[in-house]
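Quick one - first record:
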Amino acid sequence: MARSPDYDSTDIASYSIPSFTFTSGETIPVRVAYRSYNPSSSKTICIPTCYGGLINTTLAFNHSGGVFKDYHVVVVAMLGNGESSSPSNTPGFPKRIDYRDCIRSQYELLTAHLGIKQLDAVLGFSMAGQQSYYWACMYPDFMKNAIAICGSARTSGHNYAFLEGPKAALEHSSAYAEGKYREKAIDPAHGIRAFARAYCAWLTSQAWYREQQYQKLGHKDLQTYLKVHSETMLKGWDAEDVLILARMWQAGDIGVFGDNGDYTKALAAIKCKVLVMPSKTDQYFPPEDSAIEVEHLKHGELAVIPTIWGHTAGGGSNEEDTKWMNDRIARFLE
């Protein structure tokens, strides 16, 4: 992240865990980056980062009029994102990580460092939505509510296959140099741009492109949008950070907590209330999958975002959708 001149480090702090054992068995020191807003509040929410997200780009709903403006909001960078410990900044970092590693590191930050006894909610978008499910399974008595926005309890086969495309674009680029770009002193930016170009069509929806909504973002035509998006998505990211998070996303499945790997049994065992909020036009976390998940939750609610902004709606890309989510979350927490 430090390579990008656009990186915003405002009020970001970190907590060091001197000996952290990953699910894969490696034990190393790790650092968890976070930002704490309004710490004097008696109500607390944890918001992990999403794929490609950073602490200060995360939609926290704590703006004026936001549902969490009076909450203690803790935004936490998941392991691997380049702000917390990651392949790019931590010697001996594992080749693969698991959502369970992220949640355990976040739990230690909240309890051992910030002294938080209980969370009113864990909210997450995309990969962070998946983390909210893991939170509910791993620490059922620590949280009252989970809010999963454009995420899932298990990465679907279609979602897994979609990610293979952008990954291949990066891994087969000359800039990646078969993973030896660091030792060869090669800037992997060209490979990162190839990843972003392959990813681009999946972010929104067919209707979004048909209606040329990219013009609302200030782009005069499709080619301009594609070029700018490729150059700005994941700008400054390290290639191995990009890939390790994609692999963790692909492996996401709370079935690890269910009998014989059954994710529906893990869903049925979740104690807290869960608001499942997919986008109507999300191409890789579709609302049909969310509806199936809610069928197995004891205290689940389904609220489909009525939007053509696809997956990006859940991250705050469209003001109208953000207001809709804010109001729906407020009703859920009443």
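second record:
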Amino acid sequence: MASSIRSFFSPGRVFLSVNGVLVAAGAFLADYNETHVFNPRWPPHAKFHNGQTMSMGLCLGAGSLYYTLRPRPAPTVDSLRFAAILGSMYWVTTLSAILYPETKGMDPEFGEGFPQMWGAIAMTGLTWASYWLEIRRLKL
């Protein structure tokens, strides 16, 4: 029994799960405030796309959690890889967003720079390191 609990809560699974929760909740925690959703200077269409991004994070995180934590069938390389792909998509799209014309990481009234960059890079790396840990542990 104790070994099955340890197996379920392995480092790879725990880190993939933490990433899934952060992906699902992160945009809501970062954007559901006066800088985004309640910013009166944002036009309705910008708020629409922000809502789309928050919902995308929720769906990607939920999918990643599902493929990481489902008990049956036993985890496979494909299900863990798909969990890592879903869990890293949000971070990759965060990094690519700065490449579009006239975009900035922050609105001018809140500062300068691209503060999301290092967190997105770290979470992408952690996601794939977690995948690697878990497939090694399972010898898949």
